[in-house]
Amino acid sequence: MPSASKLPIALAAGDGIGPEIMEAVLAVFRAAGVLDHLEFVEAPMGERTFASGNTSGISDEAMEVVERTGLLFKGPMGTPVGGGGKSINVTLRKTFSAFANLRHFQSLPGVETVFSKAGVPVDFYVVRENIEDTYGGIEHRLTNDVVECKRLISAPGCDQVHRFAFETAARLGIDRVTCSHKANIMKMTDGLFLERFRHVAADHPSIEIHDVIIDALCMNLVLRPDAYQMIVLPNLQGDIVSDLAAGLVGGLGFAPSANIGDSVAIFEAVHGTAPDIAGKGVANPTSLLLSGLIMLRHIGLAKQAAIINNALLATLEDGIHTGDVKGDKPPVETMAFAEAIASNLGRMPTSCPPRVVGTHDTVEHTSPPRPTSYRLRRTFETTVSHLCGADLYVGTTLPPFELAAKLQAICEGGPFKLTLLSNRGTQVWPSGSVYTEVVDYCRARFELKDPAMLGRLGQMPAVKLLEKVAEKFEVADFQPLKTFDGKPGFSLAQGQ
Ligand code: NAI
After folding, report:
1. Phi, psi at residue 205, to the nearest 5°?
2. Atom of ligand 1 nearest to the CA of 14
3. Per the domain annotation, does 415 fall within a domain?
4. How far is residue 402's CA from residue 471's CA, in Å, rounded to a whole number?
5. 205 secondary structure, DSSP code
6. Which candidate, 35, 31, 16, 137, places its Cα nearest to that of 75?
């Protein structure tokens, strides 16, 4: 059991190289005196937990420890490929509402990259939304040939991550935050992400804001990474850009990561379990160490974090490195690298600015009390919505004009008319091009015949229409169409 005077933190060493790099990081922490303030409590999760038949990979004991401490320091964990096993890393972030993923990408001395050779310093943060987007993992097979993944973006989810980004920027002295998105194509989902970015930015007038389309961002990052200070992105795009950014500073071995929520914060290396080198004692512990330093700053041990950070920089400056890094000197093993850092505690780097060693080394962290029920987050509480139609998705191989004739006959006499057929999002009726190839899944859009009926129908007429269509066709999906404060809550088809 943890002692009363020390801050308890859940610890999961992880799989593959996890135990080796965790041992190395704890050795540095021990040498720096950090363990005088902290008590790590084992939280069993990962491959061994999966193997015991627990399909989440996280033991009940681990859940209890993480909930109680509100802090988890973890090594990488493997996800069973195929089958139903979900990624533990994603499960943890989602279960504990660790909504913001913060990663710092910075050139390090002794780590040769294209940019270090060109004298271009890289130093920026990525804030990735951690819970929503396609990471909901809501996927279905709709017809023989078509599968879907639902991409959910919520206004409260956007607000949380944007607020975190601006608050973190203010704390770190960053004066420019960039939102990256694909709102030119996904006007509703990425559009909301961008709109809420601008909304939250209004509370931080001293921070300059920019936005950039994700594809342009990728090119800009490769050409001019020094143009960015902090980038905030939706989940999937953030995932991809994070790895791209890791490549700019020398690879995954150098990229730390923190997953921050209101109740629980998870600190972990960006890379995976590296099965190809696991057990050989050659892995680079830097990513996990840097993640541990974010954790130390998070709980108030900023002084110790700076001392260790400077010792790491001095070690790299000395040319000491693990096998994944190119260097003039021969590589050292994981523990030897950790011992070199420990022996450099108190030293300052000379080729790059040292971390300012403050005076503060008191733990300032109290876990928020356990929520008593699920917390509902809401942003738009007074919006008025009205049903104005329905999109019905049918599994069919009928040509569009034939399908349209049958659907028109079905909705005759009701409040809705057929206004559109689209296939894979492209309009194929009432107009379209026979060059558009189609698959066995077609969307039929029904809208009110009489716009004056808006707000006067409940949802039952749309459900009745669904019933009638289902009598004749295989219904693959159903989506009521609504207006919100008079504006359509749905996108147009391509070509409409
Ligand atoms: P990986 O990151 O484990 O390995 C990719 C390459 O980078 C390998 O060649 C590996 O040797 C090297 N590498 C990674 N970390 C290193 C380090 N610290 N020092 C030296 N070399 C290092 O990615 P991979 O192979 O795609 O995934 C392996 C497993 O890890 C999978 O089961 C995956 O699901 C899991 N994973 C877990 C993550 C986490 O726990 N946060 C993140 C990413 C993957």
Report:
1. -65, -20
2. 40
3. yes
4. 17
5. T
6. 16
Domain boundaries, position 415: 385-488
Cα of 234 from ligand 1 centre, angstroms: 22
- Span 302-328, mean pLDDT? 93
Residue given tokens 């990259």 in the structure block: 113
The answer to whether residue 249 is domain-embedded is yes
Residue nearest to atom 23 of ligand 1 (CA): 272
The model's pTM is 0.90
Mean pLDDT of all residues in the chain? 93
3-state secondary structure of 200: helix
Q: Is 265 domain-assigned? A: yes
What CATH number does the domain containing 317 carry? 3.40.718.10
- Greatest mean pLDDT range, 144-153, 268-277, 354-363: 144-153
Indicate if 43 and 93 belong to the same structural domain: yes
93 within 8 A of 130, measured Cβ to Cβ: yes
Contact 253, 284 (CB under 8 A): yes
Q: Is residue 77 assigned to a domain?
A: yes
pLDDT in the model for residue 83? 61
What is residue 459's three-state secondary structure? coil
Closest residue to atom 13 of ligand 1, CA basis: 274
User: Which residues, other chains included, contact 152 with Cβ-Cβ below 8 Å and sequence gap of 6+?
Assistant: 132, 133, 136, 138
Pinpoint the alpha helices (H) of 142-263: 155-172, 189-201, 214-223, 235-248
Centre of ligand 1 to C-alpha 246, Å, is 13
CA distances from 241 to 53, 197, 460, 484 (A): 34, 18, 44, 33
Pocket of ligand 1 (CB under 6 A): 17, 21, 76-79, 89, 252-253, 268, 271-277, 283-284, 287, 324
Give the separation between CA 421 and CA 348, rounded to whole angstroms: 67
Asked if residue 457 and residue 400 are part of one domain, the reply reads yes
Closest CA to 196 of 238, 216, 240, 166: 166
Nearest to 101 by CA among 265, 314, 323: 265
The rounded distance, in Å, linking the Cα atoms of 259 and 294 is: 10
Helix (H/G/I), strand (E/B), else coil: 80: coil
What pLDDT is stored for residue 1 in this prediction? 42
Q: Which atom of ligand 1 is nearest to the CA of 286?
A: 18
CA nearest ligand 1 atom 30, residue: 272
Looking at the fold, whether 212 and 333 belong to one and the same domain comes out as yes
